[in-house]
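Quick one - inputs below.
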Amino acid sequence: MIQTIHIGRLLRETVASPYRNLVTRPTGAAIRGRIQEALAQSDCALALLDFSGIELLDLSCADEVVAKLLLADAERGGRCVVLRGLREDQHEAIEHVLTHHHLAIAVVAPGTDDEGPWLLGWVTADARAAFACICRRGALTADALAAALEWSGARVEEALGALALHRLVRTDGDLYLPLSLA
Amino acid sequence: MTRVIEVPATFDDRSFEQFAAGFGHWPPEERVLLDARGAQWASPYGLLAMLTAGQALAEARQERPLFTVPTSDDVKRYWARAGFFKFAAELFELHGKVPRSAASGPSDVLLDVTPVRATEDVHEVVEKISQGASRILHGELGLEMKATLRFSMALSEACQNIVEHAGTSGWVAVQAYTFRRRLGRRVVVIAVSDAGIGFRRSLESAHAKRFGERWGDGAALEAALIQGVSRFRDPGRGQGLAFIKRFLDQWKGKISIRSGTARLALVPPWDEDVPLSEHLPFFPGAQVQIIIPAQDPEAG
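Output:
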């Protein structure tokens, strides 16, 4: 099950004004608190944070909303988080803060959920390739992924370990599953 | 006794040192008079420097300073349009006739002199700037459209530094004008100034030890701007200036920060500024200037 959280709506409710700009640390921290509250009340496996109502996202807010949400892994109940509706400059801000913290997150464009997500942040080239392969082919075992990418077992294990650590794939027994938004 | 401090005829980041030197020991014992009668022009940096001095004197519980307004009607009108006199009247005993209201119509003033006291003010600044930034940055300076949002981000981060680090309020102003002598092109200038504790005191408890005897205003500026350190233990801090530096590098822009007795600048190829100046006359708080030049059409 997927829970969609509209950041623009949270912003309007939090700062009680018509602003569409997500700026300043206190605002970002308040928004993150609202997201964590929503996640605590939900039993969804995946949370989709929709930024499509946001005009400007500054670095402080990117850090407070996205990076700190990922850092507080326990408080999101181990859920996978995917971002949607980001503009190019917002990608940049999020990429910058996630790289700083050695974190990564999956992103989809609005209306293109079926194209599958891509990754923003601190991810090795191998982990990116493994992520793309799983998104393209669906659930795979490590052996199947190694065969598909023509990699050694150790190389695949390392890439999958990084993806699992950042909750960029789901696991079910031996299988690694893509973050399905369908 | 009154200490008369002449406002430089052309008041920008360069002539600022002459202005700062006029105060002598801080805070000056005598009542201060800022004499702006001969002023011909002031950059946003210059306008904010005067307000910051007034604010710092008030916070040091000094006698309310005097201010003689420029003789030139054009200069007075321009300063009024930039919102300077509105706040100067709160901080100084003004002498001379001041235009009653700001002129209307299109202006190179992208953001009036605006106080930054709290987080809400940063929201207001970002809202205000978004209306005119695209016209100037894209239309006049030839920057790509997405530069407008990066510019707003830089402005937001610079203003937040006041709220989070200064320990008091500050000011911001943004203006477009032509840099005739230094560059021969249009520029947008962001000036941010506060009368607070400055970079050295803000960073001292967390970082002074590491620098040993080198610790001072200059080392504190290096730590913040070059090394990206923050007084907060939160590992996410200190990224704002790093982000601003990255954009400025791409746009061949310039940032300079003055705090206490030092000034540090990241100098682009078109400028001949000194990267680090130390042992300057003391001035309270921190003064930041960001310059973004029109892109050279032949460069690329």
